[in-house]
Amino acid sequence: MRDTQPTSPDTEIAQLRTRQQELEQQVAEQEALLKGIHQFQRDLHTIERELSQASTFDDLCKRAVELGRERLGFDRFSIWFAIENYTKIQGSYGVDEQGDLRDERSQVHTLSSDNFIFQRLHKESSLYSTKMPLLDDTRTEVGQGEHLCVSLWNGEAVIGYLSMDNLLSRNPITLFIQEKARLYALSLAHLVTQLRIQEAQAEQATLFHRMFSVARDGISLRTKEDKVLFMNESLKRILRLTQEEFESRQYPPGYRVCNQYGAPFPITQLPSRVCLETGEAQRDVIQQIVHPNGEVTWVSMGAEPIFLAGESSPYAAVTCYTDITAQKVAEMEIKNREELYRKAIRTMGSIVYQYDFRKEAYTFMDANIGELLGYHAEEVTPQLLASLSFAPEIQGEMKGLTTLEASQLFRSGKVEMWQSDES
Predict the structure, then answer these.
(1) CA 305, CA 204: separation in Å to the nearest integer?
(2) Which of 1, 88, 271, 328 is the most buried (most CB within 10 A)?
(3) Phi-psi sector, 373: left (phi>0), alpha (psi -120 to 50), beta
(4) Closest C-alpha to 193, from 252, 139, 133, 153
(5) Distance of CA 295 to the CA centre of its chain
(6) DSSP states of 90-117 as a string?
(7) Nearest-angstrom CA–CA distance, 310 and 180
(8) DSSP states of 16-37 as a string?
(9) Closest Cα partner for 420 from 46, 405, 412, 316?
């Protein structure tokens, strides 16, 4: 058994100093990491504000690459987006092999059947490889090194990815750099999604203005945030509202929106609201608009949902308002005249009916026929009425009687059938 040699004091002191230096180095690295994280958070906040000012999708992608290189210290990287149901990827902007900005919008690559990058990015936020071929925008190999692929997630799906390598610096892609790239991609995906929606809304509003500005029917385009992107002049005329009043629903005093029966129309049942919530078209919804002067406008409404490419819920709904006031007024006048006519006929003691010669049946029979014939309206047939009207013995027996006298005689049971000179 070998004896353990005692450690000299100088050796122990040297070991302690070495351990102290190691701890100090670790503390310094942790402090530097925390300082770097705080600086990155400040830089990212500033970059987000600057990128939010981009007016177009292309400007946003271009500036995102520039700022990622200048402010965040990223090596060579580029931004790619999924198209055609994830079967292809299209470039935007990136950094070339000399470290300069490169326009890669013309680059579209088909993904092979064994390339499951988007399926993997749906499960993992990033994919990191230590040794792999590094490619340029045309997918030509330009070297070997570390590579990082980070998903651009819009909250519902992966819309693309940020591709990064260490071709230029040859420095390792550390965990801190990977985390910076993930946070940057998350922020960029949010800004891209918002800008795409804004561009689609602006495009739709322009299209609607061109198509429907001179339409006779009223047309509106309202988003799920309840913002009105378009309201044509016909709708302003029909509703007698400005676009501000229509969007805010702050109506003039005495202005009322009612259903077809005159009750207040619930906001939750508006065609645009239902359409945006369900994603289904709405048809033939009737409203009465009561204006402050007491006049009433009748409208028939229908709404259609509008979807962005790849989205499952609508971002806006287009609603058509047809002024049916003249039709409603005509219907009410006809109804009123029919009622006056029926009252006049009943006052005269006569019966109104409608006969369809093709079907050889009555399509309408006055319910008061029971008072004259003793039969219910549904019991009266052409054969029955003919027997009552043309029986020769009854014609002679009831000769000279008025309708009322004939009816009274019939109801007394003295005769079974009758005919009046007034028929």
Answers:
(1) 12
(2) 271
(3) alpha
(4) 153
(5) 34
(6) EEEEEE-TTS-EEE-TT-EEEPPTT--H
(7) 28
(8) HHHHHHHHHHHHHHHHHHHHHH
(9) 405
CB atoms closer than 10 angstroms to residue 296: 14
Q: What is the chain's length? A: 423
Q: Cβ distance 212 to 229 under 8 Å?
A: no
Both structure tokens of 396? 């002679």
CA pair distance 161, 99, nearest whole angstrom = 20
This prediction's pTM = 0.53
- Tens of pLDDT along 41-86? 888 889 999 999 998 899 999 999 999 999 898 999 999 998 888 8
- Cα 306 to Cα 217, 325, 410: the distances in Å are 19, 29, 69
The pair of structure tokens assigned to 237 is 């005329």
Tokens of 17: 């100093």
Cβ count within 10 A of residue 35: 10
Structure tokens at 371: 């008072």
197: left (phi over 0), alpha (psi -120 to 50) or beta: alpha
> pLDDT tens for residues 207-250?
777 777 778 899 999 998 899 988 999 999 999 999 999 999 99
Scanning the structure block, which residue is given the tokens 């009748």?
298
DSSP 154-166: -SSSEEEEEEEE-
Backbone angles phi, psi at 169, to 5 degrees: -90, -25
CB 321 within 8 A of CB 301: yes
φ, ψ at 35 (rounded to 5°): -65, -40
